[in-house]
Specification:
Strand content: 15-25%
CATH superfamily of the largest domain: Zn peptidases
Largest sheet: 7 strands, mixed
Helix content: 40-55%
CATH class of the largest domain: Alpha Beta
Structural class: alpha/beta
Radius of gyration: 26 Å
Number of helices: 25
Amino acid sequence: MHRLGVYSVCLALLAPGTRAADPETLSGYTAQSSKTEQEWEAKFRALPDLANLRAYMQRLTARPHHVGSPYDKDNAEWLLAKLKEWGLDAKIETYEVLFPTPKERVVELVAPARFTAKLQEPTVAVDPTSSQHDEQLPAFNAYSIDGDVTAPLVYVNFGIPADYEQLDRMGVSVKGAIVIARYGASWRGIKPKVAAEHGAIGCLIYSDPHEDGFFRGLDFPAGPYRPKDGVQRGSVMDMPVRPGDPLTPDVGATANARRLPLNEVETLTKIPVLPISYADAQPLLSALEGRVVPEAWRGSLPITYRSGPGPARVHLKAAFNWDRKPLYNVIARIPGSAAPDEWIIRGNHHDAWVNGADDPVSGTVALLEEARGMSVLLHQGWQPKRTIIFCFWDGEEEGLLGSTEWAEDHAEELRRKAAVYINSDNNNRGYLAVSGSHTLEKFINSLAREIPDPETKLSLWKRLQFGRISAAPANSSPAERQEPRTRADLRIQALGSGSDYTVFLGHLGVASMDIRFGGEGDDGAYHSIYDDFYRYTHFEDTDFSYGRALAQIAGSAIMRLAGADVLPYDFDDFTDTIRRYVDEVEKLAADMRAEIIERNRRLDEGLFSAVDDPREKLLPPPRDIVPPYLNFAPLENGFSALQRSAEEYRRALSKASANGGSAETRGNLRDLNAKLIAVERALTLKEGLPNRPWFQHQIYAPGFYTGYGVKTLPAVRESIEQKQWKLADEQIARVGKALENTGEAIQSAAAELARVAQ
């Protein structure tokens, strides 16, 4: 067995300032293994080819390929053939999932005038695939219930909880009404969910040109933005409760899996919902009377935006075929040479709502080039220490179906073996965007310093730093404006949901990252028939240079994680981030208490109208009970234990470095890496979050009323936001315990490191 000098490994894992004297040593590597790794990575980064990326996209987007379509299966088989052609061990894993498709859709204004919505996106002459109507899924929202309702219409802005609070103060009720909400401000599935909670019986969602149409620039085909008849399809499954096949909760949707009857499924909507274009929405909105809505509620249509209800009455009918469809996950493996039971997993989905050039094929083609590049290296003698698994997921668009069913099917094995999951999805031109586990923040910062941006030729890290400095809001604090200039690592964002990392991080506790580029392209064709090869190659990453950059950084991350002697997790940035989250929830509770006290005082003294804008003529807000002071001691104690353990791990590194010790066997490092992998698992609790036990991670989760958007310390934060004070106290104690558990896991890794370095 190899003897490993821990001195170099430990020195490489220290803070950046400590590593300055040895810049060539990578985190988690010895000086010698660093040199070898960098040589292989340099070879890999030269391999992604622009012509290949373009050719892959043209092939994959040639026909619509939603779940259950012939071309979805054809694409999966083509991907499998390419992977096998390159010599990789690959297979298709098939699952059977509920996927309703529309058989009847009606939206019509029945009073005071009559208008029938077209509900159809027309062919654009210059766009060849936009004419494939026989194969295109019509515009609909998957997992809406069937319904046939006629009722007064009410405009609810974005349809989020705060909008309903405003409607209440305007004296407008949606009970017994059909609501119309514009896309934006929250994930689409939240809109019918909140509408139903307030008594609405139907929901329409439209794309206002203010968000992704002519207000922002030229619409398609003259420019990239959504045309008047463009419609955003999408799932409205209640994914903040759980993603995946609605019929097989907690287990993989294999052919013989036990399935729920449809009337017991918990993630369908409670009311029927359909998406429409702004061309179809304008006559409906124009027919509304009632209050003129606040300025912030007004879109960019040439109308006066009013709330209703009435005199507009709308007939909404949605009926679906409640069928089960096969989905095809394409899985390829490169076995590890030294630690085959430690898995580095890389994924991107291949299904789309229609042709899907931007979402998801722009990311799929990068993943395919990564697999090809590594197959080339394998033939040249490269071998990763850990097993690499490439996953081309199916059914992501409907509700993260392919990744969730695969991970639930393999859950016990993943809990034992999965070290890191790296995801991408749609990819575009612009800045590097990374979100994920903060134990990986230092790792990805280091890698981003090494890879050039295709346009500026700066490093990806430097370009992003400049972008954050220039984009700092004018009202931000001096410390916030200085941080991108002075902090050693640029912060990565936390992950909520919305792509295939969800099951790995939120359910299984696998350290995860989502990597992509963006900020200079536009998503005006999102989930429409115009998200296709023609539009992408005219208005997005036109030469695929950022597709190549994605393959370079994601592939390099996979190689470096798979080849490291010691997994390069870091706990300094991690504890710094947790400290911020704890401070935020404590401030949230204090601010809400102070706000309620002040609002009650104003109500008691009759000062409300003197403070608020009299033009709005709003009803006063309801009087609230003043909340108790919450006991944050368990959370603070948990954080203190976490911080002490992180410092202990740092001291163990320093001591190992000073002693120049060596690990006795490869087995010692296997034990150390196993303990490091266990750190993210310790952030989960089996009982999960309140009212949604599937989500077990206590630091990151999608918000119950944001959908995709993350809530950090979700159990505590949402209990406070929803004014559930007793529950908040209970969750503070639970999350404090999770932090203590994590501290113990880090302490165990520190003790193992100290032992092998003796």
